[in-house]
Specification:
Belongs to the methyl-accepting chemotaxis (MCP) protein family. This protein is mainly alpha-helical. The protein folds into three domains: 2-190, 2-Layer Sandwich (Beta-Lactamase); 208-344, no CATH class; 374-610, Orthogonal Bundle (Helix Hairpins). Helix content is 72%, strand content 5%. It is built from ten helices and five strands. The protein has a five-stranded antiparallel sheet with strand order 2-1-5-4-3, with helices on both faces.
Length: 676
Amino acid sequence: MTHLFTGSIARRLYSLLFVFAIGFAAVVAYQLFALRQSLDQFKRTEIQSVVQTGASIVEHYYELAQAGTMTTEAAQAEALDSLRAVRYQGEEYLFVDNYDYINVMHAYQPEKQGTNRKDVTDGNGKLYLDELITQAKTQGSYFINYAFKDKDGAFKDKVTYAQAFEPWGWVIASGVLMTTVEAIFWQAAITSALITLGVMASVLLLGGLIARAISKPVTGLTQDMTRIADNDFSIVLEGQDRRDEIGAMARAVEVFRENGLKVSQMTEAEAARIISDQKNRQQMMSELQSAFGNVVDAAIAGDFTRRVEAEFPDPELNGLASSVNSLVSTVDRGLEESGQVLTALANTDLTKRVEGQYQGAFAQLKADTNAVGDKLTDVVTQLRNTSRSLRVATGEILAGANDLSERTTKQAATIEETSAAMEQLASTVLQNAQRAKDASLNAAEVTRTAEEGGQVMAKANEAMAAIETSSGKISNIIGMIDDIAFQTNLLALNASVEAARAGDAGKGFAVVAVEVRRLAQSAASASSDVKVLIEQSAGEVGLGSRLVSDAAARLTAMLDAARSNNQLMDGIARDSNEQAAAIDEVNVAVRQMDEMTQHNAALVEETNAAIEQTEAQASALDDIVAVFHTHGSAPAPRSIAPAAPVASRKPVSVRNAAASYLSQGNAALATDWSEF
């Protein structure tokens, strides 16, 4: 290492530039390493959140099965359908295997469902699914990296996270290719490399020009002084028109050349005097060379604090010493300020700048060094503003999501109350339908009884008609008897007349005739009474028949009314049943609305968790950028604290439901680093 700081001035200056280049490259490499670690952690956290969301979906349907809302088979089918629909980052998906290594669901390649995947290997022959499922069963969750064969047959690095669901013996997993992370990393690496190479090339070029501008004139002056020491005064000194310290040194050497030329042209006496003066001057030159040598050696060794301390009677030598001191001071000041700025950049302090006033190459070095600091400050400021904007945006989204969660919860409570009221209404309508059905049955029984009464009344009417007919016949018979009694009376009267005509011989016959007449009169009187009674009875039978007919008519009207009432009761019962069925459908719809509201509440909760994770990643990006100290920002520690993992949010107490975590969390990061 010591040979870097020995030798010529140019070599030592080049060594200093080389050390600067190594230090700057080391700082950039450290920042790239920290970036890669953060990107890897971000991807792991992202897929962990998606898999935990899938596990929450499965747990929700498991709770429904445990509550008896649906069968276990139906709950598992619904859970798999929900997981199959989950997509994030465009084409990323979930898959489920059981503890026996049988694939239960594969959203990307459904033909794998039902196959045993215990012996599946990656591009390196690694049994990654065996390890993934075994470790997830043992530890509850597990991360694994392996070489994944994509649809084009190329092997790419992939990281997969799995979480076990013990009640059903499932392992829910998802993975992402690291190509996105590598693309972002290599984009940042290439950008940083180009900036680093540009800065290093500029510094090395300017440093080389400065070293050449310093070493070449000094080397030329050394050669010219050697020729002057050999009494060669024919040389032409270059650089006398320069306005810097080297120009002053050239003009001082020119004085020596001119004096030497004059001495060579003088007489011996003058030469002796001049020789004496020259010896004195040579002694002074030795002292000057010794003083210069100490300063130059110290400068070559990297120590620019040494100065020419000797005092000379010759003002020109004092001027030369002052010029050398000024040269060393200028170089010392320029290198010191540049070194301070580069050291600050290496320590992530972007506030330092080269403030001194310089000319020529040092002015260019100042401008380029300050330009590097300004460019890095702009990049870091843009990153810091982007991360802050991201955190503000996620905070606003989180506030809106919390408000939506509260409103969804209130809506769920209202829908539950509505569902309870609809269930009560359905129960009441069902009771009314049952009562209407019972009333319809009673009306039917009344109608049947009325029909039987109508039949009885019809028979009574027929009986009264038969009685009336019989009364008519009896009346005819009585009339006939009355006629017979009248004829008998006439015969008895004739017999009495004839007996009277016969005298005594006819007295007995006359008595018989009188007796027959008296009997005929009695029969006639009796038949007349019977006829009156029969006629009275016939009248009463006719009245009874009319009453029976009227009662039959009224009973028929009652029967018609009972039948109409029965039809109305049947219609009421049928309409009540239809109303109950409609209310039941409405109740089912309300329950579905309730379930969807609970699903929405769960989605809001999962969205909150994803937003909090995004906010944590934005904070992690703040931590990365915070190591740089710019104007208007507080200094931050060198170490970058790893982002604390966001704890998985407990599912909502009402019901958990399907959630789709569509995340494009690395877009802002990729945009910011593209400018770096």
